Amino acid sequence: MEYLRSFWSLLTDMHFKDFVDIVVVAFLIYKLLPIFRSTGTARIAWVVVVVVAVASIANVLKMHTLSFILSQLLAVGLVAIVVLFQPELRRMLDQVSHNMNVKSLLGVEKPVPDVVPVIEQTVHACEIMSRERVGALIVFARENRLDEHFKTGTILDAKVSEQLIRNVFFPKASLHDGAMIIRDNRVTAAGCVLPLSESDRLSADLGTRHRAGVGMSEVSDAVVVIVSEETGVISVAVGGMLKRHLAPKTLERLLRNELCPENTQQNDTLVQKLRQKLNNQKEDKDHEV
What is the CATH number of the domain that holds 221? Predict the structure, then answer.
């Protein structure tokens, strides 16, 4: 009862700005927490936590030598972290910029081009490459533009087609070992180098192509399609998770769910209904005349 009375007293003493403060902090935690799922960010956070914890314990136990060393380490710790974890920090900042996107926070969505033909061409190509045991690694960029990754390959800027995808990943083609990046419904680049996943949850029989696909999905919001060269199995990596043994129809449905926003489909349906209604009204007027 004493605890409840203290809690109630604390609540009654709170002002409006205190509630706003709590809501803002909760919102920031909700947006930033997914960042720490990636291995690189977790390593940075773990190093900082360990150093701060050891420094606090050494200070309490009056271990002067250790406290002096750790205080000096903390003084230059920021520079050391930037130097040692430069790739991880860059990826973390990319994720922060994606999660804290102003337009998405305000609920303002940019117009989404018709991605259905792109999905159909990709699925058709993957079905043929799976049957012929041709390896492929296709990245669909979303909010994260992947600028630093497509610059590692050859810029194409071509229309997506089943023939182009198969030609790029033809075993004797010069770009077949890298990844193809599709951005804004066009093949932006091919032969790109992707970061490898360091997750220990992946099966040991997965090769570099699968680890690169999962690694790309860990550091960005991209959707990655992988076709195994050894088995012909089609897989998709999203958010660090790998879905394997997908049939072509399942692949198409998954890509539609990930790349075609539901609200856009609903809006398109609503627009079509309105157009149909206006056309019907116009026809009725024409008949009356």
Answer: 3.40.1700.10
